[in-house]
Amino acid sequence: QVQLVEVGGGLVQPGGSLRLSCAASGSSGFSLDDYAIGWFRQAPGKEREGVSCISSGDGNTYYANSVKGRFTISRNNAEKRVYLQMNSLKPDDSAVYYCNAGNTYWGQGTQVTVSS
Q1: Ramachandran region, residue 34 (left: φ > 0; alpha: ψ -120 to 50; beta: rest)
Q2: CB 108 within 8 A of CB 2
Q3: 24/81 Cα distance (integer angstroms)
Q4: Which residues pair with 82 in a beta bridge?
Q5: DSSP 3-state assignment of 55?
Q6: Are 23 and 5 in contact (CB under 8 A)?
Q7: pLDDT tens digits, the chain, 116 residues: what are they?
Q8: Could you give the CA distance from residue 54 to residue 111 in angstroms, rounded to a whole number?
Q9: 95 has which bridge partners?
């Protein structure tokens, strides 16, 4: 059974940076390379929202307007990981961040808290 695992969350001051990573475990035949990967986030009392995604083939990327210019999504196929580099973090970025593969597989999430 495939599981996605997110790591890299934590507490950071406004203006700081974090890098989240997403990796898969549980099935030797599963590879993140084969899927479009999305990062989503959900803050308390709010709906889950899409933050960024990267396609499987040509690596096209998408960013929500709220994070454009501050967040960067990337793949490392050799490491079989997808990263979300988050810079210039704001308190409004505080949420649980999830990665998703192919609109099918989800991780358990990692908490990001931006606070002074």
Answers
A1: alpha
A2: no
A3: 8
A4: 22, 75
A5: coil
A6: yes
A7: 888 999 999 999 999 999 999 999 877 778 888 899 999 999 999 999 999 999 998 889 999 999 999 999 999 988 889 999 999 999 999 999 999 999 999 999 999 999 99
A8: 21
A9: 112
